[in-house]
Amino acid sequence: xxxxxSCLAYLAGAVFLAGSAFRAAKYARTPVPLRWxxxxxxxxxAGQIRYTLAEILLLRGVxxxxxxxxxxxxxxxxxxxxxxxxxxxxxxxxxxxxxxxxLAGLVLLLAGACALLAARLFDPAxxxxxxxxxxxxxxxxxxxxxxxLAAFALEGAPPASVxxxxxxxxxxxxLAAVGVALAALLAAYIPFTHMAHFVVxxxxxxxVRWDRHPAPAVAAQLLYTPHWSAPHVGADGVKTWADxxxxxxxSREKKP
Length: 256
Prior knowledge:
- With 256 residues, the chain is an all-alpha fold.
- It has 2 domains: 2-209, Fumarate Reductase Cytochrome B subunit (Up-down Bundle); 222-246, no CATH class.
- 66% of the residues lie in helices and 0% in strands.
- It is built from 11 helices and no strands.
- The chain has helices at 2-28, 44-58, 60-65, 67-88, 95-122, 132-155, 159-167, 174-189, 201-209, 215-221, 241-246.
- Helix 5 packs antiparallel against helix 6 (132-155) and helix 6 packs antiparallel against helix 8.
- The longest helix has 28 residues, at 95-122.
- The mean pLDDT is 87.
């Protein structure tokens, strides 16, 4: 069982990295989007780095435009960051720092996931955007954070020490081992869901908001022939995007 759990942890890490790389390559090959001409471009590389870090570490856009959601999603994301930092710092063998980061991360992750799940269930504004997958994903995060905390309380198993034991092929207490399995499977699952939006950050900012010279690529892609089946597009596999964009949309009035 110890060997199986350790192999699962390493395999999940490999799947997470490979899946994230696959998503990045997929986004890099997608047609160039139209640039947001009215969006301000931070001056220079330093300005763009500062802006991107503020979005990633502070969720500044959510804070400005949806403060009530920010109070729920910020601890959730900070919990993920701290848990990732704890795992990354394991080889340095700074036990106190790693354990503090892991425990703080799990508490924040659990609180944020519960708050987001409650919002998804009871906030009328979010219900139209809530799918069963959203509820399932948040429930999984709650389990992945709650089980290690329960193992710490009931088995006296510090979460970072448990992960170090698993990664070095040593046994872990039963409940703590369940927590490791839940976290490992969740990490392998994330890149293949919409939760992999962290991969999109570079493309969203540098290729959509801040790209100064997209015109040649857009001009070339106006010659593509779309095959969308949606009637409002009016695509037939022969018309180019330029033809579709220049034509009036089909009328939705019902014929007598």
